[in-house]
Amino acid sequence: MIGVFIDSSVLVAASGSKTGASALVLGYSRSGQITGVVSPDVVREAQKNVLKKMGPEKTARLDQYLRLAKLDLIPTPSQSEIDKCKQIIVDKDAPILAACLASQTNVLVTLDFKHMLKPKIAKFLKPTLVLTPHQLVLLIENRVPISPKDFK
Asked: Is 2-151 in CATH node 3.40.50.1010?
């Protein structure tokens, strides 16, 4: 099974749209097609952003996703793990990148084009793939050619 670290941007997007690729990713976790993984920092950031940008109705949807999606909550990474990531990414995203590393998942799924969806992050996380929710949906639906060796 594919282990997927889910960034807060995906949780925010799913809260805003029940029909987009981000919501599908959470559905895959709920159905057991993937193992969805988050950290306390991811959950806090998503809750803060959904409430600030979308209001209480969408916050309730996020809470429902967090209850039903069967996401594994991993512990906050150590300060030394976070400091290592600060060398490659902006400080505010370092705890999330460190949690992804610690999770030992196969994929980081994110919509953070500014900081996470960058070649240097893909190189840093390798062999973990860095994908958008849409790319992950295509992968799961077998519409992109990625071999099983990419998930060792």
From this structure: yes
